[in-house]
Request: fold
Amino acid sequence: MHIRRPFDIVSLFEGFSTGYPVLRPFLAAIGVPVQLLVLLMLPLAASQAQEASQAQEARQAPLLLENARLIIGDGSVQQGAAMLIADGSIVSVGLRANMEVDESVEVIDLNGKTLVPAFIDSHAHLGYEGHRSWGGSNYSRDNLIDHLQRYAYYGFSAVFSAGSDPDALALEVQQAQLRGDFDAARFLFAAGMAPPRQGPNDQFLVHALALEQQTGQKILYGVASAEQATEAVQQIAAKKLSVIKIWVDDRGGSQQKLSQDLYREIAAAATENGIDVYAHQQYASDMPGLIDAGVAGFLHGRIGADLGMEIARQLAQAEAFVVPNMGLGELRREAIGLDPFLQQSLPESVAARLLESDRRSLTPLRSESLESELKTSFAALLDADVDILLGTDAGAVPDHFFGYTGHRELEIFVRLGMTPMQAIVAATSKPAQRLGLNDLGLLRPGYSADFMVLENNPLDDIRNTRSIESVYLNGRAVDRERLAEGFTD
Ligand SMILES: [Zn+2]
Reply:
């Protein structure tokens, strides 16, 4: 069993918007605005008092969305249902007839459209993609926020950046988000760890190391001995980061692979400090050792012939999650620049780079034997009931874009054997649980009102997750039109 402690910074979020899903409906029933209570609970320093008045200003009128198909996020669906939201939270879900709604409530008839919880990307690398260039020199507060807004545009409520962020700047952006300085998907990140000056893919590594130099901030903790492992974990604990991403990969011989002895030390020290370890591993054959060391999950599924029923059972027994991350390999061979769903968020010149060429084709050939291996391996994970999470590795390489790749990954999940409902669970409640986002991933009373309105039913065809009519985060509609203008500029 792993302690799944919420990210520290996330527990701050929870101070505002979660933390007491049980308490919330009760407070609503007795007419206490939750925000007000939270504000009263906070020590009111001068700056916080100012924030308090701003938060109160930001309170919204209740909104009732009725006549909709509600995909709850737990595998169930309600037809012809309604959802009442107020002050950024879901107040009630179910039949309109059973809801008490006074005249002040704004009502939107959704006419049979679908509500689905906003998605969560459990594996990305924010900050480096600049759309016209890629690298550490693009990493800035503004670029991080741009990436989080791209996620919001595509209907995501949160994203986990896996071990490549300069920590002080990343924390600063989290704090700014908590203060409500900008509206976007929630930003989570981890400390990175590998042998000294090793870790991300070779190209990425050069940029991450240069960015450390440039900012004087920590990104990658280099570990060469048991003592260093313990020390690094303690430093990370002192910074109140609650996830460590380790790389166990020799990158085809160009890097030194983190040894089993060392990752066991890291995992043991992390457990002592209440920190989760997520692994990047090169082969499925590395998984049993990492499971035994106690990692919480795997950021690269390595689905295929060497991941069969035996490893699937070990994963299930240890309750380790798997992010299959199939799109990273696939989408780079596809002429994604032709896809109108991606074009919505790219300048024309960037989309033009990704049209049909000798590297990219409209429908890349997939070898039948490989496809059948992938399906068998994926079926083993599903049969063993392993927690499969949506994750994309977006931003780890140029032109692997934020948000868009998440929708594409769900298409791959379904192609390999998930039902659309299973794919949606993998994008909503499962990652929310694993990342400690206790108020996200479900359309239930007390949860944050983070959801998409879809024109068409994704249970009929998973590609209907693209038919986004609107996105709401914290109960507020994301201004997608304005965002798209900025993205395509
Ligand atoms: Zn990655």
